Amino acid sequence: MIAVYIASPYTKGDVAVNVKAQIDCADELISLGYAPFAPLYSHFQHMHHPRPYEDWTRLDNEWVLRCDCLLRLQGQSSGADAEVALAVENNIPVFYSIGELTASNIACTGRIAGASTAEGLSKPSAIRH
């Protein structure tokens, strides 16, 4: 399965609407046969176990690097823009619509997990698919 990181707004605008939009996108990707990673699911974990913003961005960056591509949803977000920049820096394809993603010839890369240039990320040696 192709792993798709979903980058989208979180705190700009209505947080509940933003979380729902990402979950709706993830559900559509599942129906299309993709393996989406929706980082805004952490919204619910944060409600019960709050963490500093830097903890969430560190985890999100790790997942960006482990996915085969990134899907950037519409809306202003410096965090999502930073995730796009990280993907581009690491030669991870970025798409701006589900239509653009499904029309592409992207395949599971078998990228080696942790083979990134992002500072402070773990360096596991296992190959992922």
Provide a quick synopsis of the model.
By secondary structure, the chain is α/β, with parallel strands linked by helices. It is built from five helices and four strands. Strands 2-1-3-4 form a four-stranded parallel beta sheet, with helices on both faces.
Question: How many separate domains make up the residues?
Answer: 1
What coarse outline follows from CA principal-axis ratios? globular
Q: What's the level 1 CATH class?
A: Alpha Beta
How many whole angstroms does the radius of gyration measure? 14 Å
> Which consecutive residue ranges, at least 5 long each, have pLDDT under 50?
112-129
Tally the helices. Answer: 5
Q: Please name the CATH architecture.
A: 3-Layer(aba) Sandwich
Major sheet details:
4 strands, parallel
Q: Calculate the mean pLDDT score and round it.
A: 83
| Proportion of strand residues | 5-15%
CATH topology: Rossmann fold
Q: How many strand segments?
A: 4
Helix content: 40-55%
Q: Tell me the CATH superfamily.
A: Hypothetical protein PA1492
Distance between the termini: 7 Å
Structural class: alpha/beta
Order of helices and strands: EHEHHEHEH
Q: Major sheet: order of its strands? A: 2-1-3-4
